[in-house]
Each structure stands twice: as C-alpha cells, then as structure tokens.
Amino acid sequence: MRIGLFGGTFDPPHAAHLGASLLAMKRLGLDRMWWLVTPGNPLKDTRHLRPLAERMAAARALAAHPRIDITGLEAVINTRYTYDTLNYLVRRCPGVRFVWVMGADNLRSFYRWQNWRGIASLLPMAVVDRMGSSLYAASGRAAQALSRYRLPERFAPVLAERNPPAWLYLHGLKSPLSSTALRALRKSTRNH
Question: How far apart are CA 61 and CA 93, in angstroms?
Fold first, then answer.
C-alpha cells in the first residue's frame, strides 16, 4: 500500500489542495492520500483558525474523492509536530509505503520545522510545484541541505519504494491559491 500524507491547517481547504493531491496520486502511483488536518501549526498564528471539526468537514466536502481520506490524527494521538506524527504512523504501519507531500512554499520554510532532518529521514518526500514558490524554495536552506538526496522527476513512479532521505519536485500544478491568503481575506472582510 502506498499512501501520500499531506498535512496542513486546511483553513480553508481549496482547489490547490485537491489539485496537488490528485497530481501526487497520479504521478507517484499512490493508492490513497491522507489529509492530516492539524489542530494548529506551531509556526503560524492560529488564534483565528476555525475549529478542527469545521475544517475537516470542509475538507471532506471539497475532496469528495474515494481515495482521499480526511483525518484529524494529530488531535487523536496528541502530537504537535509533523515528525512525531509521521514517526507514529511509520511505527504502527510497517507494511505501508508512506510519502510526505508538501507544496514548494513549505519547502522554503522546511528548515524551521521541528526535526526537519528527521522528517526527511523517515519518509521520501514529494514537493509539489507552486506558482512563485519553486524558484526560491529550491535554493532555500533545507533544499540545499538535502540536495544530494534530490531525485529527477522521472523517478516519481518509484519514489514510494525509495529509502529516505529521497525527494523530488512534481511539476504541473501552478495554482496561486493559498490558505494563508484566503484566511487574511476572510479576516479583512470581517473587519469591514
């Protein structure tokens, strides 16, 4: 079983989340994609996040795909950091080949994540190209530190079988949508 793990606040979930998931499922040959809807991102201001149950319901309504599962696993197992969540899954699902999927915007700040090198050592990673993000993300601190483990995109179909660290870019999705920008818009319309 090959499962992609796609984490975030999903506040709000949007078409680029779905597009990235469908692209990753197709190009990586994934059986399923799990959206890990986090209770809160330690690197972001979470004071105005909608409740987890609301975000999960909105994500389910948007995804509406038989192979995309929406989960609030971090709230259930009481983890705050991605590394802890992924380590939990790897230990409990030894027969599953997980792939961490993230947008290029996250690669740029990846070095700020708790135990980011540990994440790269736990799972192979697919970085989905984002409009405006790929150029600066590829030259960022984490990408440079992990550059020797970067694979050409043609290895996408076998990425799930690779031992970590291993990562690659997936091109083809160029959406400008951003949950952060949509939240800011929501906040500004509330204030007017």
Answer: 27
Q: What pLDDT was estimated at residue 180?
A: 60
CA distance 90 to 81: 15
Q: CB of 143 within 8 A of CB of 165? A: no
Residue position matching structure tokens 């740029």: 108
Give the predicted TM-score (pTM) of the model.
Answer: 0.89
- Please name the fold of domain 2-191: Rossmann fold (3.40.50)
pLDDT digits (tens, 9 = 90+) for 5-14: 999 999 999 9
Q: Collapsing DSSP states into helix, strand and coil, what is residue 75?
A: helix
% of the chain at pLDDT higher than 70: 86
- CA 145-84-125 angle, to 5 degrees, is 40
Residue type, 78: N
Distance CA 86, CA 84 (A): 6
Nearest C-alpha neighbor of 28 from the set 112, 124, 129:
124
- The domain ranges of the chain are 2-191
**For 74-87, how does the pLDDT look when each residue is reduced to its tens digit (9 = 90+)?**
999 999 999 999 99
Q: Which amino acid is at 21?
A: S
Mean pLDDT across 17-22: 95
Q: 């790929």: which residue's tokens?
A: 134
